[in-house]
Amino acid sequence: RVTLVVNVASHCGYTPQFKGLEALHRKYKDRGLVVVGFSSDDFNQEAKDEAEAAEVCFLNNGVTFTMIAPSSVTGRSANPVFRELARQTQQPAWNSNKYLVAAAGKVVRYFDSDASPQSQAVTQAIEGVLAAAKPR
């Protein structure tokens, strides 16, 4: 499946992007997009425990897309998903880096923190990958 992978933190200036990520999830899930958020404290902005992180994600922001328990997303201690994303593109420089990954596992597009999930660049890239992935 086409996947949008995002590194997130509960107490970051980019936390409002959760709402945009949720909107993408709802809009495109039936067309094959999977949104996956990876909580990380690599930039010292994650909640102190999983319960608080869950409250920020699920209760405060209405997140229903998949959220992964906190792990590292940079350097040698990065989880295997982010090691591969960094190998193909670059490692996150901050929270809310977005990686659009085709069904075969190749990163199609990387977006930095400033790219809003609702931006034209992000939505056009998703539309393009979903159209290419559609069986003919």
Note down, in words, how this protein is organized.
This protein has 136 residues and is α/β, with parallel strands linked by helices. The protein has helices at residues 17-28, 50-60, 80-88, 120-133; strands spanning 2-8, 33-39, 66-68, 98-101, 107-111. Strands 3-2-1-4-5 form a five-stranded mixed beta sheet, with helices on one face. It is globular and about 45 Å long. The two termini are 16 Å apart.
Quantity of strands, as a count: 5
How far the N terminus sits from the C terminus, by CA atoms, comes to: 16 Å
* Helix fraction bin: 25-40%
Radius of gyration: 14 Å
Order of helices and strands: EHEHEHEEH
Query: What would the principal axes of the Cα set say about the shape?
Result: globular
Content of β-strand: 15-25%
SS-derived structural category: alpha/beta
Counting DSSP H or I runs of 4 or more residues, the number of helices is: 4
Q: Please state the average pLDDT score.
A: 86
Let me know the largest β-sheet.
Answer: 5 strands, mixed
Biggest sheet strand order reads 3-2-1-4-5
Q: List unreliable stretches of 5+ residues.
A: none
Structure summary:
The chain is α/β, with parallel strands linked by helices and 136 residues long. Helices cover 34% and strands 19% of the residues.
